[in-house]
Amino acid sequence: MTTASKDKWLILLISSLLVAAPLIVFPAKLGLSLATGSFAYAIVEALYYGVIFFIFCPAVSLMQLLQGAGLTFLYRIVLGTIFGIVISLMYNVGLSAALTLGISRYLPAIIFQIVIAPFALRPLFLSIAGAETAGRKRHIKKYQPPVPHGVDIIRPDSSSRSDRKASAVAEHYGHESKTERPLSGHEPNGFERAVRYLGEHHAVILASVIDMEGLTLASYRKGQIDPEAWAPLALLFHQSNEKILNRNETGATADRLDLFFGSRKLTACRDKNFNLLVLADREDDELIGIRIVQAADMTRKYLSERYGKLLLPSTEEQYVSNS
Question: Strand ranges (DSSP E) for the chain?
């Protein structure tokens, strides 16, 4: 959750006005009596905040509405406390009586602050609700990948190691793969779109598409983690598990392995023509599993569309049936 610097200054400016404006008419009550204070009033106030925030972002969850309403209620209490301290100093009112007036009794200030408070905290609420909930639903319904930092794009002319990768991929999938390596600023290919899509999830540390020989076709990383150091594990894990399964003479192979260690989770998915390796922070979030399945489907479809004639007939039929 982040709030832009200009939004912070805007919140501070509006907060100052919410404290200063009622001082102009204090102690006039504008035809209103002093409030008696009631827990029911606090519930109505919180419901008002919830309704306004729901109007701001209809896709928000109930938990985020409660969080926003609670923060705004505390914000209003802080405004009332500051207002009470100011009138105590300006009008020589006892501090206890002044705080009571500012927080729960002096209606001209309280109503004014309640009405404006959710609008003042709108940027903060949207940073809570919009950054994850709206973004999550948008990406599940329709994939529109941005270009995140940390994606490795394999280019034939970038380095000698990339040259060897590109040559090996071209030999495995056909010479057309050389023309599929985009230059900077060009549309990414299917491998890169898959790892970028996985990288949009905050928990993902590393995502790589690896061919059947252990060569990295595309990868996303955060920090200083080296994709090349993790790539061989995709083959090693599946080979080791295949030996274990063969002891029971089942002839089965593992399509996906999930390994939990410490605060991290490693997922290795295997298809007939590629491996997908994902290293992420360990947390209870089903969305990352959905993204892994979708990224694998994106890679299959790309292989089918781009290299369909070069794949085995049985594999091609599988891609067509999944598209």
Answer: 151-152, 204-210, 216-221, 256-261, 264-270, 275-281
* 98 plus 214 within the same structural domain: no
What are the backbone angles phi and psi of residue 39, rounded to the nearest 5°?
Answer: -65, -30
Asked if residue 210 and residue 167 are part of one domain, the reply reads yes
Last residue of a domain, one of 141, 175, 207: 141
Q: Give the pair of three-digit tokens for residue 145.
A: 């990948």
Give the count of domains, the chain: 2
Task: Say if CB 309 and CB 266 are below 8 A apart.
Answer: no
Rounded to 5 degrees, φ, ψ at 236 are -60, -45
Any domain includes 203: yes
- Alpha helices for 155-264 (secondary structure H): 160-173, 190-199, 227-247
pLDDT tens for each residue of 55-87: 888 878 888 888 888 999 999 999 999 999 999
195 and 298 in contact (C-beta within 8 Å)? no
| Residue 146 lies inside a defined structural domain of this protein | no
* Cβ burial, residue 249 (10 Å; 0-12/13-18/19+): exposed
pTM of the model: 0.41
H or E element in which residue 111 lies:
helix 107-120
